[in-house]
Amino acid sequence: MQALIVALMVPLMLLNVFGGIVSGIWLAILGQWWAIGIGLVAIFVHALVVPVMGAGVTLMMVTTAATAARGGVALASPFILVTQLLIYGIVAAWSIAAFHIFMSKADYQTHLPLLIWSYGVAVGPWAALTARDRQSGSGGASTIASFFLQIAYVVTGLVVIFAHTTTPITWLQIFLAIMLVGALLQTALAVIGMIPPCAESLPADKLGAAMWGFFKKREMVELEVPTETGIRKVKVSQAQLDKWQAEGKIGPPMPACRVHMLGLSAFKPVIENWTIGKNISRETYDKFKDANGDLYATEFREDGETKTHVLRKDKWEELRRRLEALG
Predict the structure, then answer these.
(1) Which of 112, 130, 180, 325 could be bridged to 142 by S-S, CB 3.0 to 4.6 A?
(2) Residue whose C-alpha is closest to residue 284's, from 226, 241, 214, 201
(3) Residues 319-326: contacts with CB under 8 Å, at least 24 apart
């Protein structure tokens, strides 16, 4: 998800850079030096706001961690929500103040450049903070917050430009609604991340062990089942496979085995690695493996689909020689 947000933020980052330059030059030509001055002062004010916000957030995080240790995730969830509302509230208040300061003095001539300039003042400092966090490897949460801030401001700005009949109250409601969605989403992700692992350990940049385990149980795996006409591949969920293994119908997965594969595109065999119990059943493996534990298979087309057939080594060698003769 973080990668998707970063990708969507690319055009917004271009607006951050070029929007400020273009609107700054525009305002300078119009003689609106007061707006440029306030924008520069905002940089220093933001440097004072961030440590105060950081102290409040750190205090809430310590409280949340202590509550989770004593009462679990359910008891800590309200504190997580309050922490996110605190962060988003400060960011929203900063942006609303920037919008009011500049747009309250706008006229027909300065309306658009002041709107773009106010976006830079409202969003720019937070976007720069997010970029620093990402460089340090801890920018997941701030990336989401910065993303929703930029989306909220852009959407509100478009409403201001094109929906002339709307009132400032409507603008405020649109902005706060989008920011609230971001706060609730980030709260949900934080709660999921605190749920104890239910299966394997989870990489730190994912949503949480529980969510990973949820989707893993629904991952489809392929098994090869021997039939009267040959080997047929069937797909089952990881949860179903686990159930069969627990009931003793299928043994636990074995280490990977080498498979000598004759593909459709070339007669020269290639080596593949299959996991026994996942890519092929243990029964099929035991039936067709050679003295070294290798398997031999070929691909073929049937009903417009590419399928795989496992052969004994002597049959596979005979097929390979025939194909090489044709080539």
Answers:
(1) 130
(2) 226
(3) 319/262, 320/262, 320/267, 320/269, 323/262, 323/267, 324/267, 326/267
pLDDT in tens, 80-121: 888 888 889 988 999 999 999 998 888 888 888 999 999 888
Q: Indicate the residue type of 206.
A: K
Q: Is there a contact between 152 and 180 (Cβ–Cβ < 8 Å)? A: no
Band of residue 203 on the pLDDT scale cut at 50, 70, 90: very low
Evaluate the CA torsion angle 100, 105, 110, 114 in order and state its sign. negative
H helix or E strand, kind and range, residue 39: helix 33-103
pLDDT tens digits for range 121-173? 888 888 777 777 666 555 556 778 888 888 999 899 888 888 776 788 888 99
296 Cβ contact list (under 8 Å, min separation 6): 259, 260, 288, 290, 310, 311, 312, 313, 315, 316, 317
Give backbone dihedrals phi and psi of 209, rounded to 5 degrees, phi first: -65, -35
Q: CA quadruple 268, 271, 272, 274: dihedral positive or negative?
A: positive
* Bridge partners for 223 per DSSP: 234
For residue 274, give both structure tokens.
């299959």
C-alpha span between 160 and 108 (Å, rounded): 13
Residues 130, 146 contacting (CB under 8 angstroms): yes
pLDDT-based confidence at 238, cuts 50/70/90? low
